[in-house]
Design a protein that fits this description.
Blueprint lengths: L14 E5 L10 H10 L4 E4 L14 H18 L4 E9 L10 H6 L2 E5 L8 H12 L6 E2 L17 H11 L2 E5 L9 H9 L4 E4 L11 H10 L13 H4 L1
Parallel strand pairs: 1-2, 2-3, 3-4, 4-5, 5-6, 6-7
């Protein structure tokens, strides 16, 4: 007989790999964000402050990233082994399909989330190619809110999602279910298809403040509708396996 899958639950989540601090457009310092994460039982967090070209979000130059890296070391010392803090970035996939930082800098980060925020109305072939460029970059770990939609104001980009899933399955890049209620992107149908093709999924809150972590259940609900199990989601992994 077919056994029902053991669907993912909030308590299976050990890490949040996409969040912002006062370095870009977040409301709290990294120390305060880390404390909020500890309170919620998280074991690993990644600061993914915006990259340089997203000026509206106070994107970081490489110099400012170096400052952030030093502050992460300091914060890690203060908090000891209560939580592991990784240094990442939410890197802009630019209109021409290139990423916002050179490869050698991306290689120095613990984790790279690549996201579309602009030129979402490009023709299907062009906008899909931008995403494929990011998926095929060896330094990219996660594609953030893949279609770029914002509920209820903005439809996602006209992507060839099948091509996106095939590329992600091949490269091992995870696609994000962004738990924020205005994103929920990937949606349940896409997340199900991604699972069927063996694509890794990451469920993150994209938190910009302490209460931002509290949207996690929305992401989990999307994942459960997609029949995702803990093993399909990289946020259930141990710190050792993640890093």
């Amino acid at each position: 007989a077919n056994k029902l899958p053991k669907l993912i639950q909030v308590k299976d989540i050990k890490s949040d790999l996409h969040m912002h601090s006062t370095y870009s457009d977040g409301k709290l310092s990294m120390l305060d964000m880390a404390r909020e994460a500890i309170e919620r039982g998280l074991r690993v967090i990644t600061f993914t402050d915006h990259s340089v070209s997203l000026g509206v979000a106070n994107g970081l130059s490489i110099e400012r990233h170096k400052k952030q890296a030093a502050e992460i070391k300091k914060t890690q010392k203060q908090l000891g082994d209560e939580i592991l803090i990784l240094h990442g970035s939410e890197v802009e996939i630019k209109a021409d399909g290139s990423l916002d930082y050179p490869d050698e800098f991306l290689a120095s980060l613990d984790l790279v989330v690549a996201s579309l925020h602009s030129s979402l109305r490009q023709p299907r072939e062009k906008v899909t190619q931008r995403l494929l460029n990011a998926i095929n970059n060896p330094h990219v770990d996660i594609i953030g809110h893949p279609t770029g939609r914002e509920i209820p104001d903005r439809e996602g980009a006209d992507l060839d999602m099948e091509a996106v899933f095939q590329a992600a399955a091949k490269s091992g890049v995870a696609l994000e279910i962004n738990a924020h209620p205005s994103r929920l992107d990937l949606d349940d149908t896409f997340a199900r298809r991604a699972k069927d093709l063996g694509v890794l999924i990451s469920i993150n809150t994209d938190s910009h403040a302490g209460d931002g972590f509290d949207v996690l259940p929305y992401g989990i609900a999307t994942a459960r509708r997609a029949w995702l199990e803990p093993k399909d989601v990289i946020n259930t992994w141990t710190a050792k396996k993640l890093t």
